[in-house]
Design a protein that fits this description.
Blueprint: H1 2-34, H2 39-62, H3 74-103, H4 110-130
């Protein structure tokens, strides 16, 4: 039961960190597309900035063992970038293309739709792989 409670606490914390990062990423994306930057490049710019912020916040809040200091690791940072690259760049870009160019959904709305797919997948990749020892 304690393990389930811990997992639920991590998921909520991951969701809060993700919410902050999502708002920041959307702001960067919207600013970029309104400046005339292609939506896929706008997505990449937001990705690079917010994944690092996610690493810092999740390392200090979500996946830090209680009563310990955060452990900074280039290996974990690279795993976080890799897991987010799969969902945040590849899957997100494919979905953006699908929503924008095939379905015709507004470019400002399409990244919001992606959240329903990418957030749960990001949590699983981070929990099971990037931060597997925490």
């Amino acid at each position: 039961m304690r393990k389930i409670k811990g997992l639920a606490k991590q998921f909520v914390s991951f969701g809060i960190v993700g919410g902050i990062n999502t708002l920041l990423s959307l702001a960067i994306y919207w600013i970029c597309i309104h400046l005339g930057i292609h939506y896929l490049l706008a997505n990449a710019i937001g990705f690079l900035i917010t994944v690092f912020i996610s690493y810092v916040l999740n390392n200090t809040i979500t996946f830090r063992k209680e009563g310990t200091k955060p452990e900074w690791s280039l290996k974990v940072l690279l795993k976080v970038y890799a897991s987010y690259f799969l969902t945040g760049m590849i899957l997100n870009s494919v979905l953006l293309y699908f929503w924008n160019d095939i379905i015709g959904i507004n470019q400002s709305l399409s990244p919001v739709l992606n959240l329903f797919i990418t957030v749960p997948l990001n949590f699983l990749l981070n929990k099971i792989w990037a931060y597997k020892d925490k």
